[in-house]
Amino acid sequence: MIQVEEPVAVPPRGWALWNLGFRPFYLAASVFAALSVMLWACEYAGWLPGTYAQTPFRHAHEMLFGYTLAVVAGFLFTAVRNWTSLPTPTGGALMAIVLLWIAGRVMMVLPFDVAAAVVNAAFPLAVAVGIGRPIVRARNRRNYFFIILLVALAAAELLVHAAALRWLELPPTFGLQLGLDIVLFIIVVMAGRIVPMFTNNGVPGAGATRNATVETFAHGTILALIAFDALNIEGKAAMALLGVAAIAHAARWLLWRPWRTLRAPLVWVLHLAYLWVPIYLVLRILAIEGSIAPPWAIHALTIGVIGGMTMGMMTRTARGHTGRSLQADRFEVAMYVLVMLAAVVRVFGPLVAGNSYVTTIVIAAMLWTGAFTLYAIRYWPVLTRPRLDGRPG
Fewest Cβ atoms closer than 10 Å to its Cβ: which of 17, 69, 175, 191? Predict the structure, then answer.
């Protein structure tokens, strides 16, 4: 009698880094996020000599137009292929766009300011072309605005460099704030699409809902905030807008039933990250009023919202698009906790620590660096190897 044994599944072998946009950009973004922040914190604390922290806007610029934009690029190259069923850049074309992003990071530490401006502004435009072709071919009008937003990010980038070069009588923070506003709008739109869906799919019976009026206010207030910041409108008018926005986004968050997601880390991390949106808006009111320093609000957005949401999406989409289960393990949970703790320490640490401001910065940087170092190590084999199910991507 012949005994037939079932074949043992062998994970696919090979190099898959250039198969789809999320792969190189998520990996590059995680490595850059870890190294850049720790380098900046060490120089800020006076532990390392160097020039990275000596340009006031460089750290902020690199985390927005370096790290964040890389994650946005990876996400959009992947999502647009799903939305349109048409290809986005892969292979050599994808490699060229990644090299353009790397060139931007290198230029920021070299004395070639004009070249840095050109290269850094060219990157979001290249991404706009990469997603624009399939979106237009598919007549996917619902997502045309992403092309416009990427062009707007290129314009904000040029404003930052023009101000730094003193071609315009503007502070570099002007373009940075507009860039942050645009990224916030992207997050607000995408969160409205995916968080309720992921919640209901991942937590049966969660009952996450959307309300048309709340959605209109949520989107409209952020668009209005972009206009206010572009026109430099502050004072009571800005405070009123921020107050309405905070209420709208808090109501939106509550409609998603976040308290029902505690057993699903891939879901609760998105809810927890979005909670920082109304926190950020309230802190901006307090900053305008003079009760707190502006960096408190800025880091609620950059670490809490952007850091938390990007980490959540980088783990979820990497799992889903490599044929893995949508279940977070202890490593992912550690990443989420570290990022959220970094936000808490950076935003509220100065209030508790008193004169230990530099210490809170270093601790927050260590937590952030730990999270993204863990991601880079854990996801290196995931992002560089073919899908487990053998499908393309």
Answer: 17
d(CA 100, CA 120): 8
Residue 285 structure tokens? 């009111």
C-beta of residue 30 within 8 angstroms of C-beta of residue 372: yes
Q: What is each CA distance from 186 to 145, 158, 210, 292, 349, in whole angstroms?
A: 10, 20, 18, 27, 28
Q: What residue type is assigned to position 166 of the chain?
A: R
d(CA 16, CA 59): 31
Provide long-range contacts, Cβ within 8 A and 24+ apart, for 184-189: 184/222, 184/225, 184/277, 184/301, 184/305, 185/149, 185/219, 185/222, 185/223, 185/226, 186/72, 186/146, 186/149, 187/277, 187/305, 187/306, 187/309, 188/218, 188/219, 188/222, 188/249, 188/277, 189/145, 189/219
Token pair 């910065």: residue: 361
The per-residue pLDDT for range 164-221, each reduced to its tens digit, is: 899 999 988 999 999 999 999 999 999 999 999 999 999 999 999 999 999 999 999 9
Residue 24: which of 60, 75, 81 has the closest Cα? Answer: 75
Mean predicted lDDT score pLDDT of the chain:
93
Q: How many residues does the chain have?
A: 393
Give the pTM: 0.94
- CA dist 180 and 176 (Å) reads 6
Residue 235 Cα distances to 84, 129, 197, 240, angstroms: 44, 39, 38, 9
Tokens 């532990």 label which residue? 47
Angle, vertex CA 81, rays to CA 76 and CA 86, nearest 5: 140
Is residue 209 within 8 A of residue 253, CB to CB? The reply is no
What is the rounded CA–CA span in Å between residue 386 and residue 380?
12
Query: Among the residues of the chain, which ranges form H helices?
Result: 22-44, 58-61, 69-84, 91-107, 113-137, 144-164, 172-202, 212-230, 235-255, 265-289, 294-299, 308-320, 330-353, 357-384
Distance CA 140, CA 133 (A): 10
Per-residue pLDDT of 20-78, as tens digits, reads 999 999 999 999 999 999 999 998 888 887 666 556 578 999 999 999 999 999 999 99
- Name the residue type at position 322: T
Closest Cα partner for 192 from 95, 336, 309? 309
